[in-house]
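task queued by scheduler; priority normal; single chain, no ligands, no partner chains; default sampling; output format set to structure tokens
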Amino acid sequence: MAANEQHYSLPRPEFDKPVKILVVVAPYYKDIADNLVTGAKAEIEAAGATWDLVEMPGALEVPTAIGISDRRSNFDGYVALGCVIRGETTHYETVCNDSSRALQLLGLQGLCIGNGILTVETRQQAEVRADPDGQNKGGGAAAAALHLVALARKWATQSKGIGFKPKGPEIQIASTEDGSTTA
């Protein structure tokens, strides 16, 4: 069972400027979602960051909420939380695949997202994974987002020096009295 396996966790990143994280949760299974949020909030606060929380009806809406937030707010990173438990139809595969794919595409566009949407066969598996004193997948998703924020900040001001950069004196453009411009 995965609960008994040993795994390595990276040291918590440190920040010299404030970090603001948005936690987006689908509380379809409220008790499981609450445990995921508890774990995420604890990890975010332990890193000295602040957080805000929004709820969405289901896992499919979580990536859309993150995309909207990125365009209209000022969060440094995002934590996606929720739970999808296999049922009797193919809806499970659709929700799991599409929510994961959408989060991955947002990440490839440069958003710092920790994916904590559980995709499980049974409620018991979800409860074990969501438990903040157990596998703490909410805390793990928050840690992933924080590490991505740290990486993005590390490389934010670095330049590879690639591309056209003119050398020499800068050209000054001035307007004349008749409205034309001169260099």
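post-processing summary
- Helices lie at 30-46, 61-72, 91-108, 123-130, 137-155.
- The radius of gyration is 22 Å.
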